[in-house]
C-alpha cells in the first residue's frame, strides 16, 4: 500500500463547503483512479490534512500526473473556492510506502 499526505488552508467560513467537496472528490477519485480513499484531519492551526491510501505508488503517480481530474466541475469549483493556501506546486508533503498497518477500519468515516 502507498500513501500520500496533503494539506490545505481554507477560507474562514468555508470549512463545511471544503469538507463536502473533499468527500465528493475523494469518492470520484476512488472511482476513476483506483485509490482506497482517504481521511481528512484538522491540525491545531486549523489546517486540513488529507491522508490518501493507494494500492501502490504507480497507481498514485498515474492519478497525480493527471492532476486527479474528475468529471464533476461543480464539486471541483467548490473545492477550489474554499481553499486559501496549498503547499508550493500543490505537491503532497509526504509520499510513503506502508510497511506495517495496524489501523482498525471504522464503519463511520465522517467524524465530528
UniProtKB/TrEMBL annotation:
Keyword Oxidoreductase: yes
All copies of domain ABM, residue ranges: 1-64
Highest rank taxon of the organism: Bacteria
InterPro entries reported in the protein's UniProt record: ABM_dom, Dimeric_a/b-barrel
GO molecular function: monooxygenase activity
Pfam families associated with the record: ABM (PF03992)
Keywords: Monooxygenase, Oxidoreductase
Protein name, UniProt field: Antibiotic biosynthesis monooxygenase
Organism (species): Sphingobium baderi LL03
